[in-house]
Records
---
Amino acid sequence: MPRTDIAPTTIRRADYQAPPYFIDTIDLSFDLDPAKTRVLSKMSLRRNPEVPTQALVLNGEDLNLARVLVDGKGCSFRAEGQSLTLDNLPDQFSLEIFTTCTPDKNTSLSGLYTSDNAFFTQCEAEGFRRITYFLDRPDVMALFSVTLRADKAKYPVLLSNGNLVEQADLPDGRHMAKWVDPHKKPCYLFALVAAKLVCREQRIKSRSGNNHLLQVYVRPGDLDKTEHAMNSLVASVAWDETRFGLSLDLERFMIVAVSDFNMGAMENKGLNIFNTKFVLANPATATDVDHAGIESVVGHEYFHNWTGNRITCRDWFQLSLKEGLTVFRDQEFSMDLAGSGSARSVMRIQDVRQLRSHQFPEDAGPMAHPIRPDEYAAIDNFYTMTVYEKGAEVVRMQQTLVGVTGFRKGMDLYFERFDGQAVTCDDFTQAISDANPDSLLTQHLAQFKRWYGQAGTPRVTARGSFDAQAQTYTLTFGQSCAPTPGQPTKEPFVIPIEVGLIATDGTELAPSRLHVLTESSDAIVFNNIVSSPVASILRGFSAPVILETDHDETALLTLLAHDKDAFNRWEAAQSLMLRFAIKSVASKSIDPETNGSNVIKIDLPTALIDALRAILRDPTLDAAFKDLILTPPGEGFIAEQMMPADPQAIHAVREGMRSSLAHALHDDWVATFEANKDTGAYVPDASSSGKRALANLALCMLTLAAAQRDDPFWPGKALQRFKDAANMTDRFGALTALVLAHSPLAKPALERFLAQFKGEALVVDKWFALQASGPDLGGNVLPIVRQLMQHPDFSTKNPNRARSLIFSFCNANPAAFHRTDAAGYVFWAEQVVALDAINPQIAARLARALDRWRKLAAPFQAAAQEALKRVSASSTLSADTREVINKALSD
């Protein structure tokens, strides 16, 4: 059952105190049984001489305490609520604690739990206390040895962290395995697995000459879906050695896939536990997006071995120390694997698109917090886009300010200073600075650290002025940041801005230069500029800011056609479409009920259509880049630019824009589809994936245009492609085209899809998600979602399945969710309360679907507030969910 706490306790960074005791070693013995697992913990402890004498208070949750011994003898103790307290302890002592727990009743999936007749753990952030009493905090690092005992027939594979030192058969059909981790770690990195699994193995030799065993464990029947994960792991090991000189430090490295998992994956030392979504893939069952996600997440968790495990967080406020840095590393890994030129830029654009669609709204809402928060009620709520993605951008800015070579020097110093320690974000930034004493980072170090302490997205203005007589061009910059909860005023940030100048014909008038904006306003002057230029500002998205320029349509079209910076070419297209969308929504001519499909008649400007046509026809551009440029801004991103925001009107306009693109570029879509529809034998590389993405976009456009004309040709072609596809990317792309075009062929195709892949859980997730995020014709999606919740393959206890249906409806289908009759909000409130009783982490994430309710136009705003109040009235909410609801409702 979830924890309940109607008035959650606030934990503050300013109150940090070092632990009163250190735990040097812990020897854990598990007798695994789903109904009653026995856990014997033997620890060696010593008092911290830097902390005044105080009692030892250990964390514990949902444990049955049987025995406590100090130095082998009975002792007095107090077990109260979620703690175990011992007084009058010697300076050094051994502590033995015997407890039991009930894994098969642990639906929160935190701590030790069962999934599909197997045992798994998830201890980050505070799950270890559900296993045994311990100082459950990241700055207490111990050497772990773990002995596992279980029924051999039911659980033939017994895994834990580190190196396997012993295994043997036991009486009564049981067996044991002992694992020893040679590296100190905090308890959140502990893991165990006991299951019936099969394994893909690969032996490698590191550059240092050491041999290592890599293993990927999955359920029987899934072994054919592990090759890509293994290839990604091998690539990760090689990349980290090459880029940062970091080698694998264990005899073996293991990945285990489980279908019931709250997160994407977990970096437990040497034993990474993964959501199956980020392990299992083959061409028949996984799309290119799935393959890319696996590559990224495998890399992310492996890179944590050094940035998170070898050096960890002093406290949970420093979470971005490991997560922001490791996201930056996995982004660099993916870009390096993608290749050079626009292929690399595609990866950057995708990362920025995610940041602006999800993190920028977080920065502007009631849950806004710095990448190093100052307080929290439930730490699980701060595994956020801000801590991860914005944290990565702050690391990237440090690399920009010291250079790639300088950043490597800083990383080397960071590991030299802090290996084996629990440290802070300040320690990391200081190491990068100290390794580069003459850098721009060092020059502005104190001010740069405001990125760690100030919430919100800075807004940068840029205005240009050309003096023909003096042959100068002046760019004047300004910066500001809106108030956020608890931070009414902000000091200026350090903002690195990459900027160049081009002529209207594309000639480069001034190459890229780095300008560092540190004041509320300043200016830079370009000399020897002979003609009025167009400024290409914030190239490569050099800082996580909102940029406002004085570019008119002509300037943006120039950037779209000629800019050498691929990011800013994409940005120009997005800006042109965004401006048009906002103008159309603001007009009074919108009738969302037009033809019953929430689509209005829109004609995009001829100049924009011509520019996009030129992009499609350009043989020098990568297909993936074309796909990104030709995709209009998302509805959520458009909504964030408006106050108030009408989700129905925004949806109608965006669909109208898609329809305009579909019809106006029809012949080019045909040529694009024909040129990219066949990619040969399936390979998930950047080039092939880009061609498939562009072909699927073209098919969507052609099917949409044909369906609106009642022309059966392209819907029929999409259905045939769906049936004949040799890979999941093409099959699901064709199915999506039919669904988004409202084609009558979509229903039989969906039925065929489920029948064909009924035994593939991750594919069935796609089936649920596509229906939940499909077009809302007369309010039909919500009834479909409610009906699908009764489907025999649906269960709210599985996070992947809950996300595929409930989250897809509430988070990925604005027009269906934001109904004028408030039925979508009623459904949301029901599901938040129901999920909270099962899994508070998942419920709290769903609760955030309405945390931006104040932006909504009437009648949506009042109805959303009422739904939030309805959830708040529940007397059994977990601390996780209540914190989100309270902040959403706060003034």
Note: The longest strand covers residues 21-31.
---
Amino acid sequence: MFAKWFVVLCGCLLSSTSVQAVDLREVREIYLSGRYAEARKLAAEQFDAGIWNEQWPRLLIECQLATGRYAEARSTYENAIQRYPTSLTLRMLGLQAYRFDGDSKRADEATRQFMQLLQSSPSRYASRDNLVAAGRYFAMRGEDARQILEYFYDRVRDADPEFIEAYIATAELALEKGDFKEAAATLAKAEKFDANDPRIASLSAKAWENTDPAKASQFLSAALKLNPKHVPSLIDRAESEIDSEQYESASESIQQILSVNMHEPRAWSLLAVLAHLDGQYEIESLMRAAALSTWRENPEVDHLIGKKLSQKYRFAEGAVYQRRSLELDPDYSAASFQLAQDLLRLGEDENGWELAQTISKDDPYNVVAHNLVTLNDRVRGFTRIASDGIEVRMDPAEAKLYGGAVMDLLREAKGVLCEKYRVVPNAPIVVEIFPEQGDFAIRTFGLPGGAGFLGVCFGRVITANSPASQGASPANWQSVLWHEFCHVVTLEKTHNRMPRWLSEGISVYEERQREPSWGESMTPTYREMMLGDDLTSVSQLSAAFLSPKSPMHLQFAYYESSLVVEYLIEKHGLDSLLKILDDLADGISMPDALGRNIGSTEKLDADFASFATELANDWAAGAEFNRDELPDEATPEQTKTWIEANPNNYWALLAKAKSQVAAKDFDEAKLTLQRIVEVGAVTGQRDGPLVMLADVYRKLNDSTNEQATLVRITTLSSNALDEIERLIQISREQSDWEALLRYGEQYLAIQPLVETGYRAVVDACTHLDSSDAGETTNQSRERAVAGLTALAILDPVDPAGVDFQIAKLMAKMNRNDEAKRHVLKALDEAPRYRDAHRLLLQLESGDPQ
């Protein structure tokens, strides 16, 4: 521990010595720009000439390490350390040289010597360079990050606010601990002092990749513009290309890295990943061996391979690699934490949470580990519902309300989808539903964020947001869980070896098969995108999920993927799709699987483009959608003229209707909106033409057409909560109890946490029971009891009345003991409740009727 000797060190004056030599600055700029050979030559000349400045051998070693000249770096270090024995920065470079030159014994000796020097005479190592180097040394040892910041990096920055290396080291430490916000803020300050250092932009890309991928991409591009040979940035680019399934591009990026440094272990590690994803397991082993050829005990190699495989949802394979990494270095925290996450995503909760707890205890500054451990305390309090190989974990209050409905839906999904895709799950399936979006994000991604995600499937583990986390307009939770369970089935069938687009496409397609209003469907915007430049070729579809231009483009990627699946099934049959999935499970690449079963990827790209174009043109064929003639910044008069000149143009009609509604000219608005319906350009979109038309009918007191329009909306949208609530009101007014029951249940499929849907179900079932219509009497009573039980949980205004209603229904079903319990609860709440007294007497006499 460094705290003892640092008491002496912090009393020393920080050296502000800096080299003013223009030549050194110029050569360092050459190095930072990626002209390594030139920088190496110039630095070597200065060092060989005996110029007394330790920064020359440091720069020379950096050039040699960057280009894989590890033996030369070692030789340079051994010569230089004789001249500059107090340079800790030089010693850290020497440590790297020994490791990558394959001399672990000397590396271990150098590590021990580093600590001995610090303990023997701390005042000799008080320069800003040495303090940063010492901080990096202690970070490497896994010491307390907060103390490293306080004792080293912050003190250097306080003494010299423009010393870039302190900012770089701070950002590196923050990124290692998962504190991306701190890393981004630190790097933003560093950029003000040196905008030409590619490390700043490269690290900034890492800081933003989880929260703002577009911004991260801009930083990565900036880093490579500053230095096209910057290996860390090229590694990040190759990783991103692997994530988006651009494997040829990734291979090209890796070749660029190897042209800079033939021995770069991360490049060979990524080649091992590509080989694994292509099912070439012998080549994978060779690539791993190449990655370890210079430093056999390098734990980063297996960690990186495993991390990338886990990002491809191959958690079992990823966990194997993390264990290999830990065999090489049991203290390598990155591998330990990745293993914890892999285990949690594999459903091995006990081991996963225990490992996360250990990591958090050993490293309290690890933000992600801390988040997970804190979350586990809450998850332990969840209610667990188990049935048919499925375990649902929910907030206790929510579980009481709709936990049974969740399990019923999941059991249905398992029966339907497992049979269709010929899958028999061989392990339990876990579904966790979180009432707090932040908890969902931490469980799913390790960090707050993830806005827009409703659910995520890791294979046999599903995480989802409950309606409580989604504000006033929640998504249909049944649709979400059906979608995610379909992922369970297809990932199980393929052993998690399927491209992102195919996995998402099948899930959205199966949503529509279960219920036409679920999943994505055609809209005017989608039509425009399909006929424009936004239709992505099938071979590039996975990339559309990783780096979409906008949230709309991401949403469109889901829809387009589902259309590809629809096309494959319509054109080639379900059996062909199942054979593709079987081939993927056998390790066959996606292009080869397609070629074996339906044809080449190139042919699929062309055929699907024709299919999509025809589909888009056929939708709302009576409408026009061209907007080219309307100026981008049209005046109101130009807009009016254009609208009048295009009577069947969707965009003109929509603009006209909005103008009429704004002017409260509802009669004219009705005619305009009816015209949009006539040409077929209708969807269930919020604030779309049908929603506007229903509102216009209501304002005109045309309840018949309002109702018909609302019904149509609910057949097109799974999330039309306001429209369903209005239909509940209308059904009550019309005493249409079967419709009231139907809409009550539709309401609960979206929002099961408020009274509205339950009251509709109870009222409908009560009246259907009285009229002996609709369902059988006992079924109707059971549903009414379930609804009343939920109302009792929701803190009703009249709890005694709710218990009394339950008691009456129980009595009608001859469940007298339960009826007595509820009538007594009613009397406990309202002792003078006369009807409850009468019912109790009837129950006691044995004649509750």
Note: Confidence is low (pLDDT under 50) at residues 3-22.
---
Amino acid sequence: MEPLRDLFPFRRVLSLEFLVDFWRDLAESPSLQQAEIARHVLSRYDDVPELHGPITDLSVLDPYRDLVALLMGAVFPIARRTDYYSAALVPYDMASVYSTEGFDRLQILEKFHERTTITGFQLRNAESMMRGKAVSAYREILRVHYGLAHGVGHPIIFTHTDPADDLDRYFKITIDSRFVRPIVVGDLPPLNSEQLEELAADPLNLERWTSVLPPQNFEFRGFVVMNAVDVTEQEVHSALKNDLLQKDAFTSAGSIDRLQQRLRTLLRLPQVRLGLIALADDDFDSMAHARQIGRSLLFSRDVIPECSQRHKSVYREVFESERPVVVRDLKTCPHCTGFEYHLIDQQVASLMLAPLRYEGKLIGLLELASPRAGAITEMSAIRLMDVIALFSTAMKRTLDEREDRVQALIKQKYTSIHPVVEWKFRKAVADGLLDGSEAAEYPEIVFDDVYPLYGLSDIRESSLRRAEAIQADLIEQLGLALGVIVEASSYRPLPALDEIGYRIARFVEAAEHEATTDVEISALDFLRADVEPLFDMLTSYGASVEAKIRTYRESLDPRLEILYKRRKDFEETVALINDTISTFLDRQQASAQAMFPHYFEKYETDGVDYNIYVGEALVEKGRFDPLYLNNLRLWQLMTTCGVVWQLNHVKDKLPVQLQTAHLILVQNIPLSIRFREDEKRFDVDGAYNARYEIVKKRIDKALIRGTDERLTQPGHVAIVYSQSREAAEYRRYLDYLIAAGYFESNTVEEFLLEDMQGASGLRALRVKVATAPPDMEMRVQPDRVLELAQKLAPAATESETASGQRSSM
């Protein structure tokens, strides 16, 4: 053990002097009874000089155990030696000086390393614990000798397995250091404010601490009191909450076993069994369509047993009850039906059925059973009320996830197919049925030699703006909560309120620095668990406190129970932008399909992107001509301009002013697309064609070569291409559309793009969309368009030349 002890750099000495000081103060008490007891204790102590001053050899205590117990009576309740869990220890050591019977029974010192968690993490080894003690000792030195208070310690939980029932019990360990002092040996090292701040900012760097505060300059003298408080119920509730938040909470045997063990620990019933039933409806007649979730006591091989008297069973009773129904002894129940006898055959003696309700609707049942009559009682149901609410929420999530899987399976077998290509799927299925089997292997659906068109309207900096909205909402909510605590402290200064205010301020600081998801969740959990429950009590402090609490509560969203202002504005803005773009595209698609049938799909995220595939292979009848491809490309440019104008119309309605950039990807070489069975969508086929997909995923972040400028810019349309003939074709379209009033003249720019992973050698055109759409006459009279185009030809040529010179630089 000596190498391990060396990790703690300070000398530790047992001393009873600070406890004796307490008795000496008590001897001067005006209470005659207390003073008489104190004088008696001191007279015995004064007669034993071996116990005076530092005690380096603990064996010195052995002959005087009764006297030590008498002295410790000031710390340990004599009447609670068996159920009080405390011990006096050498400072920062695990050497016991005195302990209660209850503490010894838990074997905390013997099993501390292997059965202790700190902030939810298992204590890795004795070495890490000793380093932690060293850090704690240094913080105590700063507090006592330099006036620098340290924060709240981390929760320490010790797990004890009760030999009586083999169930775990959880104890929160706290250290009372009122009878220990960090004594200065020699001179106290002087520290300025800058040095103190550096130490506080780097608490785990023991090398720095030992260099600034040499350990030989200090000695820890006295003793500490280790207390263990039973927190089994709180720990099990917290563990159950975490378990029920897991995605597979009800779907795996391991997770059900874990939940069952938690309930056994909570109720102190080692043989309790858990079952879960999902209901099709909250009418008992739908019980025949119920199904087990994970496992159920009533079900046998996934089927409910036949029971002609089921309407008299306890399962019917729970349908009509808002509270759990308890049967202490099934053998003496008023109406034993086939359901009850089925449970008795499974050695069930006592039973509790709890209704799982979500938003008032009965969605499931929780079964809890014991083989011992009378083991489960109404008190068991009362202790589980909060837990049942957690099970209800988890059941709702499980049912929603299951419904999603059902829908996915339906789509897997009966996928909705785009009308343009439906004929191909119908033919494949018909050919399979002709083979005489519904399970026939259907041929893969592939379309060769189709031309892709891709368009994107992307909301700029959406991730950053979303994060800023979340951050601002969180900081405001924390600020409102801090205002309540500060106002309450002005009426009644309490250290506990100061501590809560400090923690709120720390969360504000963390959110201002970096509002990560972890910070947000931790802050909101803290507000809900530690701050908001105080508000009902704090309203009695004064009218101004009550007003701040009312302001806080009124600021929260009633459904989400969080401050949801800027994030709501952001999400409503994104939804309005997406809806505007999507609705316009759908409307324009009707006319585009009339040009020539083609495959079209779109996706909404932070903006809208879409794919178009066109070619002869896609149509069952008819011939494809490149003119139709030209029409679609021209339609795409005109439609993108229309998107810009549509967004301008709704700009004033946006709660948050977000900008949108627009991009088109060009590929002249046809490719093949294949229907992916696993994803139920079309994807490009072949390694060469995969480059097209890679480019699609990355070009929205493309930079102009040699600059930090993004290619896509609000109010412009960027056209990305790789071949010069693609650029020539699109310049013709742009000349026409500039003449028609869709784009501003003299704004066509040409760029080389920075190489991206999997996408190099790309170029782009960029053109500014006109501030307003052209009038209808210009749109429908091609003679006028041609006339205007001829007039603008020289200017267009100059613009083209200038752009070409810029791109070659």
Note: DSSP finds 27 helices and 24 strands in the chain.
---
Amino acid sequence: MRSFRVLLGLVPGIAAVAPAQQAPTPVPALAYDVPFFPGTSYDPAIPTPEDILGFAPGQRAAFPHEIEQALLAWDQASPRVSVFEYARSHEGRALYYVIITSPANLARIDSIKAGLARLADPRGLSDADAEALITGLPGTAWLAYSIHGDETSGSDASLAVMYHLAAAQGDPVESLLDDLVVLIDPMMNPDGRNRFLQQIAEHRGTQPNVDNQSLLHGGYWPWGRTNHYGFDLNRDWILGVHPETRGRIREASQWHPLLFVDAHEMGSQNTYLFSPPRDPPNPHVPASRDKWGDLFAREQSAAFDRYGWAYYTGEWNEGWYPGYSDVWGTFRGAVGILYEQAGWAEDGVRRADGSVHSYREAVHHQAVSSLANLMTLQANVPELRRDVLEERRMAVSADGPYARRTFAVLPTSNRSRLQDFVALMSLQGFELHHATEAFSASGTDQLGQPFSGRQIPEGTLLIANRQPEGHQLATMLEFDTRMTPGYLERERTAILRDGFGTIYDVTAWNLTMMFGLEAVTLATGLPGAAAPGAPARSGEAAVSPTAIAWAVDGRDDASVSVAARLMERGVHVRVAQRDFELQGVAMPRGSVVILTNDNRTFDGDLAAAVAAAVNEAGVSASSLATGLGEGELPDLGGGHFDLLQAPQIAIVSREGMNVYDFGSIWYVLDHRVGIRHSHIDGGGLGNTDLRRYNTIVLPGRWQGPWPQSSLDALERWVEEGGTLIAIGNSAAQLAGEDSELSQVRLLRDVLEDLDGYEDQVLREWMALEKVMPDSATVWSHAAQGGSGPPWTQAEGLDRPGADQLKRLDRWQRMFMPAGAMVAGRTDREQWLTVGVDPWLPVLYNTSRVLMAGSGVQT
């Protein structure tokens, strides 16, 4: 040890006389020189990746601009290649997909797309015409790589695959491209990839490093998995929030691919996983996918066996949630295939068995998988296409499983939310109708309650499940998609045996509930009173410059944006705490009101500022000429219109924060509300001047509890009037037993003192249910028995002791679902429930239960 210390002490002196750079110590296993596609000759007129970039695929990870440079070069050089930009990321980077096929197919590409569209909608398509299309059209494959920016090998494999298909001479590639149109999305998340590779570059030295725990392999917060706003784009396919997703949905939908590949990476000590997935099976996956999934897996495994590579299928990979790339493709008619290559980033990784695996080998695995899948598709295009046609015929059949089901979204005053929902449905290619008059129907509501003879109002949005994309529509909008009894039995057994189950993602996602829109499922096809298209949006009201006040309907989400953006302009804004009606204009509580009397010192044209804000938000404002409320309803000058304080918002960032939570809050403030805010470092809250902000948001944390110094700083700030919003496990920590910041507590911490919490629940419940004694009892002259406190009539008076309750709590927490939609009742007179319906759909995916005692508003 002493000699080692002496050596360390000598290092600075050594540096003064040694060469500027020592040659790397060789790691022989990193010299992976196996050819990707052996025995292939290439057209010398097509530049190689090395010609364009100066390095071969897999030598290192290519930056987004380098991938762009390569595919644009091949677009110019190869008669088989055509490149299309389909979107721009939040950071302005281009996203492309590349068409690679024979020159003859490229020359008729528009007619191929038209034929694919005709085949995708079998209504009115004769058997003879269908067969002609089946045999006359090339197969289509969509190969998508690296939707997670720190899973780099897929995009580098796409370079090898694109060059091979663009330049290889003779069979088998030329015959492959005669039979297929290959569509390659080489880089699904350029912002995340660029961020990750920059982090890697910051930690790159002269010596190869095969320790997967080194920052050279992992990077640092916020890492590179997500896009600019911390969103996992592999969960966005049914939500369509981000430009990367919206662009690729538009393009992929036009090609109706028969194969949809989604190339990922997983833990570095793993091997290679590919589809088919394990249970639970989504009931709306077309029936033939099991057969085809098994065939593709057998032939992909044979390709790996030729190299002696290790692999597996299923195990942890699930296809229940329809928002993954490959699963989205599966519902639309493709054989969806997931790749999960072990993450051997940068140089390579030493595995637990002592073997070293190079990054170039990881890229080779992805490239071989891609070509193997393409060859399987080439050999089976007609048969696969006949199965897809039969599934689509079933989806549109009058006798099919979706024939007597229509999803109905009821009219709402929240026009912005409905407009966003309609835009998403249109993006997904679903056929929309609306009710031109009221009609009576039977069905089921979102709480699972059946009804008959219910009046469905005029203007209802109607989405018949009987349509070509019926499989995908069903899984996106069905209220309660159910797992098989056999799977539930296996899941429960796993929980009892191991303490945890197999599901690792959300198990519920119904989109009408996620949007907070009231909807019902009708047990019928489209009614006679249905017309194509979404219900028309009413015209916008002009902002009158002579009004004494303007009001924006608080039921519309965009009213929040109007209020915030006006306050940023220096306009004073109020919010109504009660419903009101002025000169025949009825508005709900939560509506935004701008009074000229509040803004006499406003420097500018007040009416023009209001008009600009409502136009930016896409809503209308009612112009008011009087402040006198109708009847007993409030007047504008009274105490029911609270003056708002201009927001000065900070989101706590970095320092172990949950990237997803942070990013979604950032996105909402940036894009949905559209107001300025700051990001502050959670590691230094004690040294930050928090007085600049009146609202601080704490996203959930991934790493460790909040430092006490930060909690102390926040406590002082709250005592001085700040509003603190805590989410997820940050909220759980603030609700801890010793918390000074909140009176909310975790259920597990108050099991010894439940009486006070039960009293509060009973009070709120009785108020919501409007529990009243009989009026004769109220006005009688005699005292009545049986009118004691509610807990004397409640069941379960013999509550178990604290130890038993703790044991029960531990038991029940094992069975908490990975994600469930629950119905939260709301207090219609509580300010927190402004803009919310009587019950609120909540996506619940944690075992934490918060308890609110006296003095806590919920």
Note: The CA atoms of residues 577 and 858 lie 16 Å apart.
